[in-house]
Amino acid sequence: MADYLRYLLGRFMVIPVTLLIITAVLYGFVMLTPPEVRAELYMPNSQRVMTPERYQNMIAIRIKMYHLNDPYPIQYALWLKSLVQGQWGYSPTLREEVLPSLLRRTPVTLELTLYTMLFFIPLGLLFGGWAAWQQRHPPDRAFRLVAFTATSLPMFITALVLLAVFYVALHWFPPERLSISSSQVLYSDSWRVYTGLVTVDGLLNRRLDITLDGLRHLVLPVLTLSMAHWATLGRITRALMIEELQKEYIVAAKARGVPTRGLVWGHAFRNTTAPALASSALSAASLFTGVIVVEIIFGFKGVSELLLSVSGTADAAPVLGFGVYSVLVVLLIMFGLDVAQGLLDPRLREQREIHAAA
Amino acid sequence: MRPRRYFTRWQNLLALLLLAAYAGMAIAAPVLAPPEDGSGETPFQRVSDVKDYKPQPPSSEAWLGTVATSVRNQHLDVFYTLVWGARGAFQFGLTAALGAALLGMLIGGLGAFFSGWMQSLILRITDAFLAFPLIVGVALFNQLYLIAMRISSVQTIVIDGVSQTSGPPLPLEFFFSRFNPIWLALVLFSWMPTARLVNSLVMTVRNVDYVIAAQATGVRWLRILLRHILPNTIAPIIVLTTANIGGMVLVQATLTFIGLGGESAWGSILAQGRHWIIGSGGNPLMYWWVFVPVTLALVIFGIAWNLLGDGLNDWLNPRKINYAQF
């Protein structure tokens, strides 16, 4: 247990280090802009219309206050400090503070991401293992063809095809997050928000219809996202599994007449899942990008709304805030996968002792 | 590395055939779809005076029909965009993948060149960039581009019809007057797999006996790099880069489609026509020409590059390094 905790701590320390590097790079890009633009990052929450002179004055005060004419390290440190204090700036386009507006939209994005991961990771591992077991047989050939096509399809085309079939032609799964009648329930007094995830809150509020409606709307986006990631994970699992099945302990067990099925799923598969999850963790960033793309296409009003609303106007604070936020999300996804890996693979936990013994 | 083995697999032949077809289409674009109003600059051909807001089916004038624009009575010729879009796709895919590959080789090579803390710092930075979603980079560069435009419009004063800028151009303006923001974002945020691959390859090759022998006999480091290390690392990089080319074009089209910029002609005409897929009421194939040809063009373009990459991998990567792990 202590080893596992030590392993987790080691993996957890990656988060602050990566955040430091990424925020330094982000602020490096911000340094390319003149001080007047940087001052906008610190503008207060104000809905009043200001006279140009007053605005210039406020900008000048902020340039002085946050040392925006000073060298990079000083500016970066001050920006980092305000980030930690939760002051992520104010967006004139959204008429809202950046951090609250991100947090308010988080449950939508979280729900989509969670269901996608719960869906594609087990399926990817199982299909990959199965294809490796059946190597060069029809199931393997079929898997390789489907996986190849799925990785070659851009997400918006999968989304369009799924929408054309299951929404336009069959009317089974509509776009957007909820039907109009269900979203009205969400704004009524009887609805209590527990987690913000409609499928969970529906159960807690004893409104099964809302949960089902939420799930019905999640089917197509989750399917779109899962397609690409399922295929990638499956291909990696397959390659790792084929390698594992050629190892001596498997060959020896086979020679002694141990049934293949048990060898494949009981031994080889268990040893493959952790490294397969590790490579999945490497593509956590592309999973997040996919979530944003799918949110936009299916009209889910998650954190992608921030990007869309400022996409045509110069408004730096929300974009920078979105950047820090999404790196944080990606790192948390990676950490989650690290936790799962440690649970699945005792070798990772005991690395320290192996090194010490060697 | 016998070329003959490469040509015996039907997948490889199919990939070459498909890419040759696209290249032919891109080169012969002025013949296949001659620009009418002499503009010829954009991959879009306007069809005016259509007295209908609905997409027009294929006709002798527009071979693959038209799709309506937001301008009244003005449509776009689908076939024209299909053909001319191939040019943009090749240009963008090749330059972006090559840019990312060169940057990755530079950073990965630097990491392997140094040892000790410098190397671990470079590797740490590479890993940190892996946690950076591409879409954030795109949003960031779009934002910097808008800011650069705002600044240059403030600085530019028009005197007697001639625009004059006050003061020297800022680095920001300098950057964005030469590069497209989406291109920059894609290059700057997708070099990490190449860098990791290069780093691990060079680290392996560096300690091989013949390299150590060359060093011991006093061969200069540049010669070692070019004669011994590069030939042994270039093949996997080529494989990775080839597979990236299609991916870059697909990402560009995706970004254009969801309205985050990019100049993908295929993505933009699909975005124009998206309401005719979703909103056609019952029969998704009613206006098939709006999206089926362009979608196929895009998907097959991606598949062709992936096939080429897979084939090259089997041929050039006998050790079967698993690139998905980088």
3D architecture notes:
- The complex is a heterodimer of chains A (358) and B (326).
- Chain A has 358 residues and is mainly alpha-helical.
- Chain A has a domain at 105-346: MetI-like (MetI-like fold, Orthogonal Bundle).
- Chain A is built from 18 helices and two strands.
- In chain A, strand 1 (90-91) and strand 2 (96-97) form a beta hairpin.
- Chain B has 326 residues and is mainly alpha-helical.
- Chain B is built from 14 helices and five strands.
- In chain B, the strands form two sheets. Chain B has a three-stranded antiparallel β-sheet. Chain B has a two-stranded antiparallel ribbon with strand order 4-5.
- Chain B has two domains: 3-34 and 80-131 and 189-325, no CATH class; 133-179.
- In chain B, helix 12 (265-272) packs antiparallel against helix 14 (288-316).
- The mean pLDDT of chain B is 82.
- At the A-B interface, helix 2, helix 7, helix 8, helix 11 and helix 14 of A face helix 5, helix 6, helix 7, helix 11 and helix 13 of B.
| SSE-based structural type of chain B | mainly alpha
What share of residues are in beta strands of chain B? Answer: under 5%
**H/E element order of chain A:** HHHHHEEHHHHHHHHHHHHH
Q: Any idea of the CATH class of one domain in chain A?
A: Mainly Alpha
CATH architecture of one domain in chain A: Orthogonal Bundle
* Uncertain spans of chain A: 354-358
Strand order within the widest beta sheet of chain A: 1-2
Mean pLDDT of chain B: 82
The radius of gyration of chain B is 24 Å
Mean pLDDT of chain A: 86
Radius of gyration of chain A: 25 Å
CATH-assigned fold name of one domain in chain A: MetI-like fold
Helix content of chain B: 55-70%
Features:
heterodimer; A: 358 residues; mainly alpha; disordered C terminus; B: 326 residues; 2 domains; two-stranded antiparallel sheet; 14 helices; 5 strands; globular
Summarize this, please?
The complex is a heterodimer of chains A (358) and B (326). By secondary structure, chain A is an all-alpha fold.
